[in-house]
Structures are given as structure tokens and as C-alpha cells.
Amino acid sequence: MNRFRLVVHPFFMHHISQPCKQCGRAVKGRTDKQFCNDGCRNQYHNLRNSCQNNYMRQVNHLLQKNRRILAAHFGGSTKKKTIAQQQLADQGFQFRYCTHETKTDNGAARFCYEYGYLPLEGDVLLILHQPSVESTIFAG
Ligand SMILES: [Zn+2]
What we know:
alpha+beta; six-stranded antiparallel sheet
């Protein structure tokens, strides 16, 4: 019985090996090998990571755009740093995306990095600037 298995085993192993997860070619060698070589393994993992990275890239892009819009209003020449919510929306501001919230005496302020907004009455927003992560909020 043992002799029989010794003869058959290599043949058996060779034929039940899975196709390479990357290129689909037969994988030679051990049956638990998933890829035909390091190149295929790296390519497979790079592609998988790029899907995750692509999501992060899109979110980062949205956050940076939001930040840019807020920064432009905060740094503008008008002394009043209030703006209509609709005006931000018209400029492509995505209200669903922010980096963090901070509680203020007047409600929750939402930030995109160091620039944020605090809803006032109606659809008016007060643009805020938070110069460093630990500091308190300075309203424009
Ligand atoms: Zn391969």
C-alpha cells in the first residue's frame, strides 16, 4: 500500500495543482502553490491593492477639493466668512465627505482637514479655520 502511494503521489500532485491565480497557467510544483512565479504573485497583489488604493484616491480627491473650496472662501477678501450652503454645493462641495467633526457651543462643525464649516441659521454656513490639530477653532 505504501509503495503504491509513493509511486502515484507525484503524478497525482502534478495534475490537481490549481491554475495560477494571476495568469491561469498550470502551476508546477507543490499543490498548495497559488502562483507560477514571484512575478505573477506580485502582479496579483498589486492589482488587488490598486482597487483599495483607487477608492482611497477618490475619497482623498473629494476631501482635497472640499478643503480647497473652504480655503478659498476663508482666505477671500470679504471680512464675513459666511456662505450659503447652496453656493458651496454649486462649486462642487461634497457635504458627505469630511475628515472630522468638532463640537462648538453653537453646534457641530465639520472639517475637511483644517478648514470647516458651522451651520448657522437658514442655509448659512460659517467658514472655520483650525490652524493645528490640537488647537481650538478660530472663526473667520
Ligand atoms: Zn502565473
